[in-house]
Amino acid sequence: xxxxxxxxxxxxxxxxxxxxxxxxxxxxxxxxxxxxxxxxxxxxxxxxxxxxxxxxxxxxxxxxxxxxxxxxxxxxxxxxxxxxxxxxxxxxxxxxxxxxxxxxxxxxxxxxxxxxxxxxxxxxxxxxxxxxxxxxxxxxxxxxxxxxxxxxxxxxxxxxxxxxxxxxxxxxxxxxxxxxxxxxxxxxxxxxxxxxxxxxxxxxxxxxxxxxxxxxxxxxxxxxxxxxxxxxxxxxxxxxxxxxxxxxxxxxxxxxxxxxxxxxxxxxxxxxxxxxxxxxxxxxxxxxxxxxxxxxxxxxxxxxxxxxxxxxxxxxxxxxxxxxxxxxxxxxxxxxxxxxxxxxxxxxxxxxxxxxxxxxxxxxxxxxxxxxxxxxxxxxxxxxxxxxxxxxxxxxxxxxxxxxxxxxxxxxxxxxxxxxxxxxxxxxxxxxxxxxxxxxxxxxxxxxxxxxxxxxxxxxxxxxxxxx
Length: 468
Ligand code: FAD
Ligand code: MLT
Ligand code: ZN
Description:
The chain is of the alpha+beta class.
């Protein structure tokens, strides 16, 4: 083992190979606190050439690698297993914006660029990089690509997959694939870029990316709306789509349990609607600087929604500060639920038309397994994606969630029966690798294994993640 550590030190410099417990601590435990591993070392290369050197050294020595960006992943895919034999390869030092071309609508970045910094770089040339996540202050574009992240702008701009034009990847044997082409049109064979998107670090290390930029949307009209049911929320979505067209950029849902957690745990959070409701939606219209009238359009939509019984009340943001406060009610949910104790996370998609029935039908099923259980239900209803994140009963022991396999299995079975997906946006990681394969056909799993074997025959890239 000393040999490989020496080799890693010569690749990146002594200061960037961390082995002391205190130094590696933040890299071996995931955001949820559920996955805590050990690492042979945490290596922090500063360039693509250094990543290639590290990966080649590990390949020669037969040492497994766990790529890591901001370590905000929610399925345990970015932290090592407990063996202490894996190397964590952190992209955290690779934070350069390599090129911005506002006319072509492209930005080329290192994989370690933090999503919020990417937003700032796009804004500096009067453009928008639309991906928006609660974790954007810490997550990296490499992690977003590796997980094909979703977020609150998918409704208008699509998943990460739709925002990328080209990649630079260090392959498991240390060779570098330079696919950093910003072309919109390139029909020259298999789409290798898309192969690496959503591969969760199991096929190679993403070191750079060319991403799409969009026209800036500095004008916003934002509302927090009390709705009687998921059904009503879905009807309101249809109304907003018809009336606001392409201006509709966000349509998020949260149940009362979720909002109560934010109000209890997020400093400064307050309820903008006095009468409590079972469900809420955050609706936002966004437009260019020259587009007036978004507030009027939103007000008219909501007025009609109240008349039609789709909404009970609404608070429209009257200032940027109020807009931030409304967004905090939605974006603060994950953090607030974490304060409450352990969370059993489920990240599911179903056809939008069946979401309401599915959510209602799940409650008695879960109550039977664990009376008093709290489904904190929220997420990207406009994409058919609910975060069905479960907390133990109030005052109950988190250990009660040890019934988890039954709970999760009941949820996954019902999602599969509804032709949905058990992971809409967070990936499979370690937490859902087994379940992920069990809901795919044998043909699909065989194809995935064949791809994995073709690129990583020695199985050294993030073993145990995505494929069991
Ligand atoms: P990490 O956690 O470091 O890694 C995630 C996975 O990607 C791991 O498998 C890792 O091995 C791999 N990986 C990381 N970097 C690379 C690389 N350069 N090359 C190859 N593989 C790599 N996700 C959503 O989709 N939508 C949301 O709305 C959302 N909201 C969130 C809110 C909060 C508060 C938190 C904590 C998380 C949220 N997430 C969300 C999950 C998470 O932020 C995303 O999955 C994010 O994309 C992970 O980025 P990261 O840099 O932190 O990756
Ligand atoms: C979000 O949309 O806030 C996250 O993806 C949900 C989660 O933390 O489970
Ligand atoms: Zn989400």
